[in-house]
Amino acid sequence: MPTINLGKRKPHDESGTNRKINKSRYNTPDWIALKKAKLLLNPVCEKCNDAQANGITHNKKYYPTNGPIDEAFYNIDSVISTCHQCQIDEHIRLRKEAGRIK
Ligand SMILES: [Zn+2]
Fold first, then answer.
1. What is the average pLDDT value for the chain, to the nearest integer?
2. Where are the domains of the chain?
3. Which end of the chain is more exposed for a tag (fewer CB within 10 A), N or C?
């Protein structure tokens, strides 16, 4: 019987584990409610003030770690409304600040 070689699966690395943790944190009723409330309060992107916000991201005062979620994680004062492009830019900036990327 012919077989298809799919190659070896990559073992889970640290970043894969973190991605799973992060995904589960942002796919919760708390996060979805926070996003809805924040977008109602600030419908325009707070970074560029030029586009409709369609997401939220943690602001400079709060940087989420991979440890246990603290009280500020889902606090409305810990997030800003962002358009898609500013959300990407903000995440890159935060990762650079945290030394995760250069
Ligand atoms: Zn923007």
1. 82
2. 17-97
3. N
